[in-house]
Amino acid sequence: MKLSLVLAAFAGLFLSLPGVAQERGDDVFLAAREAFQKGDRIRLDNAAARIGNHELAAYVENYQLRMRMDDGNGEALRAFLARQEGTLVAERLRADWIRWLGKRSLWDEVEREYPKLLAPEAEVTCLYQQARLARGDRSVLDEADRLWREMLDPPAACQPLLDALVAAQRVGVDDIWSRVRRQLEAGRTGPARATLYYLPQSEMPEGRRYELTIAGPPRQLANLPAHWQDKRALREMTVIAIQRLALSDPRLAAGELEKRQALLRPPEREWAWSQIAQQGARRHLPEARDWYARAGSAPLSEEGYQWRVRAALRELDWGGVRDAIQAMPPELAARPEWIYWLGRAYRAGGRVAEADALFARIAGQASFYGNLADEELGRSVTPPPRARAPSAEELREAADNPGLSRALAFLRQDMRIEGVREWNWALRGMTDRQLLAAAELARRKQIWDRAINTAERTRDEHDYTLRFLAPYDEQVRAAARNQTLDDAWVYGLMRQESRFVTNAKSSAGASGLMQLMPATARWVAKKIGLSDYHPGRVNDTETNLLLGTSYMRLVMENLDNHPLLASAAYNAGPGRAKRWRAERPLEGAIYAETIPFSETRDYVKKVMSNAVYYSTLFNGKPDSLKARLGTVEPPSVEPMKDADLP
User: Fold this and answer.
1) For 180, left (φ over 0), alpha (ψ -120 to 50), or beta?
2) Chain-centre distance for alpha carbon 260
3) Start-to-end C-alpha separation, the chain
4) Catalytically annotated residues
5) Which of 411, 410, 401, 405 is closest to 431 using CA atoms?
6) What pTM value is reported for the model?
7) N or C of the chain: less Cβ packing under 10 Å?
8) pLDDT tens digits, residue range 80-99?
């Protein structure tokens, strides 16, 4: 046989090997994606001709169809959607097509395609509602009314519906100002400005008064025109200025309101007090409860209701806690945290049976408040019995699932956003057995975050060894041991920080398993004498663990060796964690619930609950969340040991 034939045969055999063929297909897919992003039809078509039966071949065809959408070839689109019905790629292409149709006011086709979507986005739903409105379906205005009340920053496609609502005179001046207030409370100053344009010309604030009020509330309050109280627009601008001032200084805002409240109408005055109260509660000011009382019947946002409870909690006012929760809308009061604290309020008032009934509603849930409810009922926090391991057949079914295969193909190419999106779509409608098999598949592929998140979805059959995976065991335990840290707490924090994705990077720039910010990593490296450190090493597993656990130890030493405070500090900074303490001993659960930052509050609860489960799994015996939370003592008058601790 000639040498050339031997080499050709060898090359063919080489390319037929699964791993090589997969890698070659990945390269073709990436070439197709790049061509699509650059708008290069010729290169895209060339890649499509070579993609074969690669897992992501449908995405390449999707790229071709999206690039040719302006050609108006609906038949090709419909044929693709029919073949790919139910897949994520079909869902997204159909949504893009509906957007294309909506821009051209092809409303009949929008109405035909929209019902085929499985999880429509708000923008696409508004296009469908526009289509119905175009054919005279006035029932759409009822849905637009809900948008007016609930959607504070609507996409452009929803704007015509709001316009139609106003044109139909279903929105009055009171409704417009109410929406402006809700938008401002949510920090949506731009959308609030747009809402003002719905006011009749005679009711509009003059000139640039709105912009000046948002930019400089103290100056506007100091320069109110004579008889300002006679015009609604000026009264509204006054309370808006007070609301803006409260964001930075609630006490100063309260003083400004005291001077002017006699000239305001009750709804205006009460709304202003509710805004001052909410900001005061966030700052743990004792006056917050009185400010809430002065808010009277002012409608509160979800945040406003919740901070009213937290203000009472900080003062151990159990009657106030009870009343504030009972005043909440039912769907808000039904959340686990408020069920738990209402139970605590009942128990403090001697209503033990009613308290236990509330605790029983959330006990057994694998969460912060589920754990605490278990302990209130005298039960141990332990994982449920471990489900039977997935069979070979169940694992084969998971491996053959087209959606999971597409997700794995994306993840293989480090396209995490696309991979996670595909994975989660594939999980829709799965049984517990299928979820456990998918979680085990992810574990075997060392895709730890998907294994954890998938195992968390089971409803009746559970495997907490998958929910609370402990990869990098030797390295993590050695790092924890070297810093004299509880390995369960270290794992609990890492699980929340990165889900064990070594190259994870946050929007703020934190990196690696322990999500270290660049400045923090540099500071710790210098502090511990890591002379050869450079930023490129932050994602190295051992370096990341060394720096992260060293920082945990330093934070602990500066915050009373309290893991609750240290967890808050790891997320929000040690200075804030210290400032959030009370002037007297505070129950750890109350400290956690009254953390001002929602991200940090959620983070701390999850880290501490995670640690309980890791401890139970590691040690084979129940652990106590209440014991871990302990009591948070008042702040020391002495400065922190490391004053420059980041």
Assistant:
1) alpha
2) 39
3) 70
4) 497
5) 401
6) 0.93
7) N
8) 999 999 999 999 999 999 99
